Amino acid sequence: MNRTDRLYALVEELRAVAPRPRSARWLAGRFEVSVRTVERDISALQQAGTPIYAEPGRTGGYCLDKARTLPPVNLTPGEAVAMALALKRLDGTPFRAEAGSALRKLVAAMHKDDAAAARELAARVHILDPASPPPMPRKIADALDAGRVLRIGYADRESAVTQREIEPLAYLGKPTHWYLVAWCRLRDQVRVFRTDRISSVTVTAEVPTFRGLRREDLDIPYGVVEQLSLAG
To answer: pTM of the prediction?
Structure first.
């Protein structure tokens, strides 16, 4: 069994017995490898975000948080490639890194033969000059999750840079670029900042008081704003 197959099998073994633990020695015997190899594999899975934790004690071992994992996903190869194309459109958005992680998890959760067929189909799909925004700095992409006041340098249309302290509120996307919607302390109002004009960013330790974002704050004169939904 190669390492990729073993990592997948380790997760499925822990899922099958969850929430009960399996010891490293038991897993080593099951997959005919050393205890050290199992420990390295578990560490790799944990670093990839798999919710595996160690339960101490004589009867302890490794446990999988079953509620936070997906069973094998019954996607067809065509559906998997469609998902890859959809996630490709997230290049340059605040969720570029998460899109790549989601795609890897999706493929890892598929049946082995379906995943192989999806990879073969994907290799036959080519994209000519995809229109996408430029890459977004990681600190800007993490602005809403961080929940902190940002100190930024911002360039206007004439390239004049001002220093601002802002309280991030939302993202607003167009095909060519993305905006960070924030309360600007310099202007004392909600402002919309093009992320490609943010020349510097520092995440401060300050957690701002919650501010609601009104629909009229996103009343953009040159387009209709649509809120993202996870309902499909």
So the answer is: 0.60
